Every structure is written in structure tokens, then in C-alpha cells.
# Entry
Amino acid sequence: MSQSESTPKKTQIATGDRAILPKGAKTIPIFIMGKQYEVPETLTIMKAMEFAGFQFLRGAGCRGGICGACPTVYRMPNDYKIHFGLACQTVVEADMYLAQIPFYPANRAVYKLEDIEARPDMINALYPELFRCVACNNCTKACPMNVDVLGYISALKQGDIARAAEISFDCIQCGMCASRCMGEIPQYHIAQLARRMYGKYIMPKAEHLQKRVDEINAGKYDGLLEKLQKMSHEELEKLYKEREREPDLAPNGTWVPQDAQYL
Amino acid sequence: MKVTYYPGCTLKTKARNLEDSAVASMKALGVEMEELTRWNCCGAVHSLADDDLIHQVAPVRDLIRAMEQGSDAVVTLCSMCYNSLARANLIMKNDEVKRKTINDFMDEEKDYHGELEVLHFLNFIRDHVGWDKVREQVKVPLNDMKVAMYYGCTLVRPGNVSIEPIGDTKVMGEFLEALGATPVDFPMATTCCGSYQILGNPEAALDVSAAILESALARGAEAVILSCPLCEYNLAKTQGQLTEKQKLSKEVPVYYFTQLLALALGLDSEACRFDLNDHNCLNFLKSKSLVA
# Structure
């Protein structure tokens, strides 16, 4: 607080568990589950809800737009459209009418990746409901990540697992697609199966990675780890501070450390 | 006139022999087949319920995608895709009330009024390539080959989407003649293959498949052509069962019409894809010295 006292002209909303509103800050009305709250503009839905007094035990995760725990559905006045967004990423607007959907139940098939192959009929056997799609496109319209959900569902019906994996890459598994599906399809779980099949069986293997894994398994680094474990706090700190670092602007693949014995 | 190709899901999975042979043949004939860049299932079975418009959304969305790509027409190979796209197109063209309901529902897409034409591949070859050009390009004429023309249901029913006046077998006949083969018309050319009854009522479906094949054999056919993966399943993939149950007197080679086109154009096995048909298909062609 001392900083804001020394520069009183700069209005700043204090952050933390709950935003504290400075005098004169503009607020806007939003409706959370039907009840009106006055919240500072510029906040995200998640911060605004916390400002209004809600505490998230579930329905909040990374707060960085990646984990998919905080999908929000909302409507705007005089607009029949239903909108979707992540609470941690979407900035509040005046008269937004919203609710959180932290979890949406969806059928998830049980399988062992080792026991299946990357074949379209394997996906069809695990998720026969895939063929209940009528291409209504509600799934795509519900996606807060702008994934072409109908596109990857269609790719799977066409047997193109690689394409489905690629299209669904940005999926954060929030489940909004499944919540809107009239065919009761668990799109996001099927996409995950497609990406797993792609990763294990279709994508070219990184040979250098396998070589390194083999070296690790063969115990190449065991001695080094043991040595580190036995070091005192001071020794570790010294080692860390004096470690060789790749220069920030070194061209790719040119830098080699002095001590190359573990490469 | 820009024509876009709509493949359909089954052609990308179980019926690669239908697609691969068609694409390779068109390339050999110098006709580019531009595939729709984004497409979904055609809906597969046209919904007959008058108020069940949700099942028209899938085919209409495909037609809108083609329109966005600047196409004037969509060409399909699979009879079923042809049927569901053509019938949805007629609704959008002629039924003002249903058109409005569907367009309102798909408010994220451009409105569609049936601007495009839906073509089946057989008519596309006739009208946009021409039998003369096909005839000129034939390297391996299918002489002395008597081929039954099986239309099934979805190429010809209902009459307002039929690829030719119902009862006629002109377009398949001209197609076979251009390849040097002898077309065989037979009474059950447009009898249903049993369709999805093969799942719920397999005996009835097997009976009708046997009857169709016997009907073709009785008219002297040595082989059958068709353009539908479901017909192909019922008339070809079941033949082991049919002969075992003594419903069918002998096995009959069944081909997608495009496979015989690829063969006659002298294309290789990667184009013809007889490896995806039953073994009797390749044996028959060997007996005719048409493949090595």
C-alpha cells in the first residue's frame, strides 16, 4: 500500500482475494444467476464474481485460459443468442446475464490405449453415439476456444483421425460442446481419444527422445542425481548460481557447455 | 460452371475403392475433381417425416459450404449421398416455409435457396465429360463382358431426384457401352437391396440380395455394377453367406461402376482397388484376361 500512498493520482484496483474498489471507479451491473451485482468494469467474469462475494472452491483452476474449469454461459439484453466464454478470460459487460457451468457430465469410454489401434472403427466401437450427429453445429457455437467441433466430429466420421487431432488441438475439455449436443455426443472425450491415438500410433516418433529415455533407464544419470541429493543447501545454491547458461541470443544449436559429459 | 466434389464418409473409410477409382479416372480424363474443403455427413437417410427438419440441416450445410466455395454444382459418387443432398436441395429450392425455418435455424451460415445443382457422377460424366471422350481414352476395352446395371433405390427414387426417367437404364447402358462392355438390363435393377434390414432382419435382406443376383444371372450377366456402398455390402459382402445357405447358385463379381471405368482407362491396381472387393472380382477379370 505504501506505493499507492506515495503516488495517489494513480487509481489502481487492489488485487488479491477480493478486489477493493477505489473511490470513483466505474461500476457496471451484471446478473449472476439472476441476481444483480454492481461490479467494476474491466474485471474478468471470475474476478467480478469474486468481487461480488462468490468464492470458488471448484469451477476455477489455472486462471490462465487453459484448464477449462470455468466455462460461463451468458446472454446480453435484447439478443436471443447464447454466448460462451471462460470466466477467467472474458471481461464483464454491462447487463451480462450469466451462470457458471463448472462441470458437465458426459459418457467416457474405458479403454487401454495399448490394446487398441488407430483405426476409425475402434473409435466407432467405443463411441457409437458419434453417428448421432445431425450437423446442427451447436457444439461449434458453444466452444469458448473457437474449436471447429463439428469439423473434428465430421473428420472422425470420415475416418480421418489425424485431422480430428489437429482440429481439436486447442480443446480444453470444458464440456460445453457436450452440453449443447442434441445427439448426446461427448465430443471432447472422443477428441481426446483421437489425439491419444494420433500421439501414440500416427505421429512420427522422436528418435532422439527415445535415445535419451533409454539412457535414463540405463542409469546414465543415477550417479549425478545421487550426488545432488547428498549436497547441502549451500552447495546446491552455489552450484545453481555458478551454473553454465546458454547465452540468451545464441543462435539455435550453436552453444555447447564446457562440461559436456552428460550430453 | 464450377463443379465441386462431395465424397461422403463411407468413401473415406469402407468404400475407398469407389472413391480412388473415380478420382484416378477423372485425372486420366483430364477432369479435375476439386473436393469440398469442409464437409460433414450428408445425413445418410432422407427423413420422410414432414416436420423433421433437423435432419435436413446436415445436407443443407454441405450445399452452403459448396456455395461458399463458389460452386455451381455438387457432384457425388455415393447413391445415398446423392439422394439426401438432392432431396434437401429440392426442399430449399421449392418449399418456402421449410426453407425459412432451416435458414433461420442456421443463422450462422449464409441463407440458401437451392441455388446449386446436385449431380450424380454418371450424369456428370455424360454431360460434362461426354461418352465420346471416354470412348477415345479407353485403353482396355471390356469386350465380351456382360454387365448387369444395378441402380437400386436411391439413384431413381423418388422421381423428382431420379438421375433419369424411372424405368430407364440409359445412362448406365451408355456408360458400359463406352467402355466396350455389353450392358445387361434385368427386371430387378431397381429393386431395393434390403438396405439396413441386413442389421435388424438379415434373413429377409439376404433373400432379396439373392433374388436380385439370380435375376441378373438369369439374363446372362457375368458381373454387376452399382454405385452405393450399402448395396455393395448387401449384394457383394454377403455372397459367402448366400452360397453357404444355398440361396445363391454361384458367386457373382460385383464392382463399383468407377472401378470398371478405371480398368478400361488402363489404370493400375492402385486406381482400380480390386483388393477391396471380394476375391472373385479379380479372378473374373483374370479369366477375361483384363488384368494380369
